[in-house]
Amino acid sequence: MKKVEAIIKPYRLERVKEAVTALGVFGMTVTEVKGYGRQKGHTEQYRGAEFQVDFIPKVKVEIVVADADANRVVDAIQKSAGSGAIGDGKIFVFAIENAVRIRTGETGESAL
């Protein structure tokens, strides 16, 4: 099993959800996060004062899938979240040793 973790722009979340759901993947965890990479923040004005915003709001999407589905999920996220601009985000893929469905006790891929 693989865990696909993507940091994306918040307004791209619905497109990512639709793209992943179209693959038959229905479970995902979404967390609002803040961070920066090459974008390094930006300057904003509020009531005439200029200030630096170092951490930019993003969304972290976590999806655990079977090994065979991981590349398709990564491709779907990349296509649906990408705009070609700096700050589109990153995708990370981790190996998952085991999963357990608490309600039934199922383990491994059947727990997904």
UniProtKB/TrEMBL annotation:
GO cellular component terms listed in the entry, alphabetical order: cytosol
Gene3D superfamilies with a match to the protein in the record: 3.30.70.120
Xref: SMART domains: P-II
Signal peptide (from-to): none
GO molecular function per UniProt: ATP binding; enzyme regulator activity
Chain segments annotated as transmembrane: none
Pfam families on file: P-II (PF00543)
BP terms from Gene Ontology: regulation of nitrogen utilization
Top-level taxon in the UniProt lineage: Bacteria
Family named by the database record: Belongs to the P(II) protein family.
Identification of the protein by name: Nitrogen regulatory protein P-II
